[in-house]
Amino acid sequence: MSKSSIDHLALFGGQPLFEQTLHVGKPNIGSRARLFERFNDMLDRGWLTNNGPFVRELEQELAALTGARHCIAMCNGTIALEIAVRALGLSGEVIVPSFTFVATAHCLQWQEVTPVFCDIKRDTHSLDPARIEQLITPKTSGIIGVHLWGKPCDDEGLSEVAAKHGLKLFYDASHALGVSHKDTMIGNFGELEVFSFHATKFVNCFEGGAIVTNNDELAEKIRLMKNFGFAGLDNVIYLGTNGKMSEPSAAMGLTSLEGMDGFIARNRANHDAYRNALGGIAGIRLLQYNEAEKNNYQYVVLEIDEQEFGLDRDNLIRVLHAENIRARRYFYPGVHRMEPYRTLYPDAGKVLPETLRIASRVLSLPTGLAVDEQLIWEICALIGFASENHVAIRSKSEPGR
Fold this sequence. Notes:
CATH topology of the largest domain: Aspartate Aminotransferase, domain 2
Number of helices: 14
Shape: globular
Structural class: alpha/beta
Strand content: 5-15%
Order of helices and strands: EHHEHEHEEHEEEEEHHHEEHHEHHEHH
């Protein structure tokens, strides 16, 4: 159903373009038959947690996929980040981006380590190595890079800064499973890398995460830490917590991994369809993936230039949401403007001009199994219509402006 008048927009009382809501992160289920086979095997064994066979198999599969020597499965990505911080002995201050999911900072603040927010690069939305050195103090112990949208960080630049100042470097790779950087798979950079397998990720474990590393000593320490420090029956030799992944989660993860190639193919086809459909609309920049590398194409990310498009990002979001297109303002407004950071570090934004700029312009559109090429063309036609009628939309939605 096309829109030929702004009165047809659901924002102004018209019928929504879609009856059912289209979400950015609709879960990929994979083969239900294979998943329930695994559930039945698990129930027959009566082994539901505590390093069961599915968890061990998933760790082996993820290690093979990334090429890393060690994979330690976790109950979720946030606990994995917290354990990574402790395992590396980070203290004092750690440099992180503000343009990320809040868990990247919480994993530090929760453990009384101060996150120091650094600005990002305009092209990748990830940490800018050129901005880091001005933030380093005698208290700085590490850097956490985030491979945002599955676009790899500038590892060479970050590694150079870390080595020069004796800092630990690790990566939040929550978006970057199945991605390569200079022909090396994500999972092999820094001291370690942390994956998330939350339900919204294209490969999921319902809830889950993992740490991968090539450091034997570090891997042994992490395995102890995620299981209360147990080194055998009744033998606790280290301070630890409960970060274990359960067997149902691992069963889902294995099933999801089996469908991974199909999920990526769908994501890529969607990304190509969005690129084609948005190509003629002024004021929109679609973030591109490096076709010379492996990508998962998990996110369709736009930057909206208000001057060229006619509407700012937030007004476009209102139009889309009314039509049941649940576009997201990832990662608005920036972690430094959330609590407790807004109160603790009120001046952080002064060194984050690119973060502030991008946080006001970015939106993510539905992809994955939630959409197909026809739906994508309808979404993009609506976006084009909003641009063409921006004067009337702004006049009606913002009287007196």
